[in-house]
Amino acid sequence: MENRTGIWFIGAWGGVAATATLGLLATREKKAPLVGLTTELPEFSGIPQMPDWKDFVIGGCEIRRGSFAETADDLASQNALDSRLVEVLRAELCALDAEIVPGYTCNSGPVVERMADWSRKDATTGRAMVSAMQVEMGAFVKRHGLSHLIVFNLMSTEPVCEYFQDSLHRQEWEHWDAMESLLDSGMCPLPASSLYAIAALEAGYDFVNFTPSLGATPPAMGELAAKTGARFFGNDGKTGETLMKSTLAPMFAHRNLEIMSWVGHNIFGNRDGVVLDDPRNKATKVTSKNHLLEQILGYSPQTLVTIEYIKSLGDWKTAWDHIHFRGFLGTPMTLQFTWQGCDSLLAAPLVLDLIRLTELARRRQFTGKMDFLACFFKSPIGVSEQGFVRQFEQLERWMRVE
Asked: What would the pLDDT profile of 6-56 be if each residue is shown by its tens digit?
């Protein structure tokens, strides 16, 4: 069928991917309202070449044994999903399990390695992993007669890639030819997220990184995408507390109110919470959540971001923020807010929007870094503007171009 595009979820049986999959099935069969989907806003109706929800086919990889239905049932037991909707779509969810293959955990950290009970161990080099995943992706594309493939990273957050913290490795960071040489090393320093990005971009497929992991961040990846005509973007989907920061911080700036300190405390109990309980993985996430205030305000207030795993909360996340600011005549004042939501349900509609917009970019023959998608991310690659409203205006301008 013409214009059918594959979605290759990395971390396919996780909460976000399973919720996005259920949401896609429900949306295209008109079994759920369109609330939460940016691309369904009235101002975006009638956009030429906008993909239909029926244009997408789901596949992917996973490092843990499971299934789409098992994850959906778990979320339903937490009152995060409607169990009746899960039951209606159960047969379709189960059928999609056949499209999921074992994935890799290279340099994802010990906590992820311990969770992996279905991962592949056959690749001794980065190049071997890249080649193996390209074979799997290509077989999926051929099996379904797809026009294209979007590789979407939803795997657990990786530790900071220390290799690129050293200025000695600037060439590998900036230039594809130098980075490519790392793939043949038996001790390849690249994390799985970046190897998946290379597998996708080298094959001419698109790559979207919804996690704070390295992914396609190095400029060398941009060189690779330019060579193959692919599209890419990330990092770290902006779903809750940081969305509030990017909305509220410009308000303080425009009213000339000085933020003296901003403290954010996050608690949740899902599998991401388990991973982020490890300080090495947590450091990556905290950095992603904590950087935007200085860029918005033009100065650096005191900040503190904490992320704690509380098992009993499951997929329900609570964020409490305390903002201490200086008002007129120097009087200190306080704003506090509490954000509570289901982690997977906050993220899933963004995933679907990003898939749809990435495919729209392909149909418009756009290639390279999709910076018009910045409003969806905490750490948009190469984008200095962090205010949500201005980021969204950039998306609106791009959408209106014919």
From this structure: 999 999 999 999 999 999 999 999 998 899 999 999 999 999 999 999 999
DSSP symbol at 237? B
Per-residue DSSP letter, 118: S
Cα-atom radius of gyration of the chain, to the nearest Å? 21
Size of the chain in residues: 402
**In Å, what is the CA distance from 203 to each residue of 189, 264, 359, 366?**
21, 41, 16, 17
Q: How many CB atoms lie within 10 A of CB 45?
A: 9
Question: How far is C-alpha 194 from the geometric centre of its chain's CA atoms?
Answer: 13
Kind plus residue range of the DSSP H or E element containing 338 = strand 332-342
DSSP state of 397: H
Closest CA to 177 of 204, 196, 161, 198: 198
As a whole number of angstroms, the longest Cα–Cα distance in the chain is: 68
Rounded Cα–Cα distance for residues 290 and 286 (Å): 6
Q: Which residues pair with 307 in a beta bridge?
A: 266
Chain centroid, CA 171 distance in Å: 27
pLDDT digits (tens, 9 = 90+) for 299-316: 999 999 998 999 999 999
Running DSSP on this structure, what letter comes out for residue 239? -
Calculate the alpha carbon distances from 380 to 107, 156, 208 in Å: 23, 18, 11
Query: Is residue 299 classed exposed, middle or buried when 0-12, 13-18 and 19+ CB atoms within 10 A define those classes?
Result: exposed
